[in-house]
Amino acid sequence: MFEDPLFIVVLLAVLAVAVILLIGLGGFAGGGEFNKRNANKLMRWRIIAQFIAVLLILGFIWLRGGAG
After folding, report:
1. What is the largest CA-CA distance in the chain?
2. Is residue 22 left, alpha or beta, with left meaning phi > 0 and alpha meaning psi from -120 to 50?
């Protein structure tokens, strides 16, 4: 499965979502100026990245023949 380029792209998209989420959580936990400046921007980026990741996952499942 790791030889499949589409799977690698899906994996990178999921990792990007996780990184954005962790940065946002770290900023929220720390509070302060960073959180005030970037909280909404990080939330928007996470939602966009999640949307792309879900589309890639669905495309991967569709192109590789579904569950069966």
Report:
1. 50
2. alpha
